[in-house]
Design brief:
The protein is of the alpha/beta class. A six-stranded mixed sheet has the order 2-3-1-4-5-6, with helices on both faces. α7 links the parallel β5 and β6. The N and C termini lie close together (10 Å). The structure holds guanosine-5'-triphosphate. The site of guanosine-5'-triphosphate (GTP) has 22 residues, from α2. Guanosine-5'-triphosphate binds next to α2.
């Protein structure tokens, strides 16, 4: 991180989590922030957000994590929610090809609504969730190949078994800080 940033006392990084309904967006956020997982499915209505503060390179960084409802039509989430985002997490379920294919549309919609300063270099993290399940439909290779097209980073894991969730959010925080 740049020296000028570490001198700032409080930094806030806005992260947004988007993707189809049921892929585990709320679950990865809850696993990361509250260290909890629930088998019960409760659809997110509208949006929800949680904060967590981390020390990164000696600076106190508050991650403001926005969890969105996958059932919403893309457009209805709207510009105010997307604006000012520092890093966007595109989540799919590795046992669902449909949820993976939908990421193209989610990404486009984010770029239209969020209007990031430089769309070509805006940081996206693609997250393949539910790797604990046996009936996988999307390979790591396929997901990585898709990410290469626009320079996204790929992480996969499981909110249920707590596989690589923290690593994913910390990477998102680092990438978000680079947007300052
Ligand atoms: P919406 O709010 O409708 O957009 O859904 P969401 O993407 O937030 O999904 P949510 O976190 O509510 O999870 C949906 C279902 O998948 C729940 O029953 C979770 O328990 C389950 N789930 C989430 N993550 C995992 C995981 O890593 N492994 C397994 N096996 N199940 C998971």
């Amino acid at each position: 991180m740049a020296a000028s940033l570490t001198q700032k006392k409080e930094l806030t990084v806005k992260l947004i989590i988007i993707g189809n309904s049921g892929v585990g967006k709320s679950s990865i956020m809850n696993r990361y922030v509250n260290h909890r997982f629930s088998k019960l499915y409760r659809a997110t209505v509208g949006t929800d957000f949680l904060s967590k503060t981390e020390t990164i390179d000696g600076a106190s960084v508050t991650l403001q994590i926005w969890d969105t409802a996958g059932t919403e039509r893309f457009q209805s989430l709207g510009t105010p929610l997307y604006r000012g985002t520092h890093c966007c997490l595109l989540v799919f379920d590795v046992t669902s090809c449909v949820s993976f294919s939908a990421l193209e549309q989610w990404r486009k919609e984010f770029l239209i609504q969020g209007e990031p300063k430089d769309p070509d270099s805006f940081p996206f993290i693609v997250v393949g969730n539910k790797t604990d399940l046996p009936d996988r439909e999307v390979s790591s290779r396929r997901a990585k190949q898709w990410c290469e097209q626009f320079g996204a980073e790929y992480f996969e894991g499981s909110a249920k078994d707590d596989i690589d969730v923290e690593k994913t959010f910390l990477r998102a925080a680092h990438m978000g800080l680079q947007q300052y």
